[in-house]
Batch of 2 targets.
Target 1
Amino acid sequence: MIVFRFEGRPITAEEGQSIGAALHAAGIRSWRTTRFGGRPRGLFCAIGACFDCLLTVNGAPDQRACQTVARAGDEVSG
Ligand code: FES
């Protein structure tokens, strides 16, 4: 198991697990909102096709949570 941080909160993930899967397992279902309408977004397709799951990882914006493997010490935000 590894630990990364989502908006300051420690999140435990299995080695090789995606950030999106780890957030989902932790009960976090959305981490950003749409530009128009402010609707919540998180995992949708979970296969890298829809880009609904974008977040920032270690300062790098627009990373797909469903395709990004969680690493120990990552700092993640919506
Ligand atoms: S959930 Fe669709 S690209 Fe990540």
Target 2
Amino acid sequence: MSSDYFSHLTEEEKNILKHKGTESPFSGEYNDFYKSGIFVCRACNSPLYQSKSKFDSGCGWPSFDDEIPGAIERFRDTSLGRVRTEICCVNCGGHLGHVFVGEKFTDKNVRHCVNSLSIRFVDHQKLQQIIFGGENLWFFQKKFKELDGVYLCKVNKVKKTIFDHIEFINKTNVNFLKFYFNSKKTTLETILNIFLKIYASTNFLKKNTNRLLILCNDKKQKLTIENLMLQKNKILKNPIFSNILLYEDNV
Ligand SMILES: [Zn+2]
């Protein structure tokens, strides 16, 4: 747990995120709150939950039945004379609350019981998700992680069905680079410029396997990327054949 992440917090927030306190039930600003967006860690801004996972359990704290993959860490908690599972932010270690399984509130049968003071709501316009599909994206992961306002940047293996109608030379080597970014800190154009600059300089183009997949989480983002790709391809010696698709589910 790095103390830097907590230095900007109020005493109330610190009491929960750093010292594992609990806010009073029905007191938090997100207990009865259902706008569309993403909930990030109040200490480090890392995305934790999507609003579509939020539900009303009636318990008095914000409840979620799923987390953003890779965002939450679980710990055995034996305080208060019972065994519970504590949940913390993976990035900064900040305490969020506890997770309960088997209560049958939703189909997923999971309830993340989270303190409002541990999280902050960000609407979708400010925090976007983007997914690049291609070959050998590990190097890009390292580059994008260094950018300001980029969160949960990770290369994943993917469901191969997504590539069924896309002509990659070697589908077995294809993977996804997925991350969230705050467009006020790093713009979509900057991200695309960095990506294409590295992509165009790799050996893949020389082998004529320059096919790229970009999965967008909204129509506006898709349109912006299509326009940027058009402009880029006008100046590239070997145009990049990209498939830009709308894809809203987690992959
Ligand atoms: Zn955090």
